[in-house]
Amino acid sequence: MPVVPVHSDKEMNRRKILAKSRRAQKDRNQLIELLQEQFLSQGIINKVHKDLGNEEVRKEAIKELTGIERDEAEHLVKLLDLCEKWIEKLNQITTGESAGDEE
Length: 103
Hints:
Order of helices and strands: HHHH
Helix content: over 70%
Distance between the termini: 33 Å
Largest sheet: none
Radius of gyration: 19 Å
Number of domains: 1
Strand content: under 5%
Shape: elongated
Structural class: mainly alpha
Number of strands: 0
């Protein structure tokens, strides 16, 4: 019978953190795509994913929107800010977890 190794608590914790990090990155991308849709719905086609990934650029860019699209864009920007803070915290945790590792 094959022997299946049991992962240590440290390894299981790392796996959880990495899964959360991947999910947060996916959420961030989805929010940026939703933000881009707001521009497209008003005929503004020059706002691309790469530009909207930058915090200062997107906060300046939403000033071009009007009506409900602008309200939704402001909401999405707040969600993006929270998501990016969460990603930063997960990165700090990952760095702290791997600080004692040997190469």
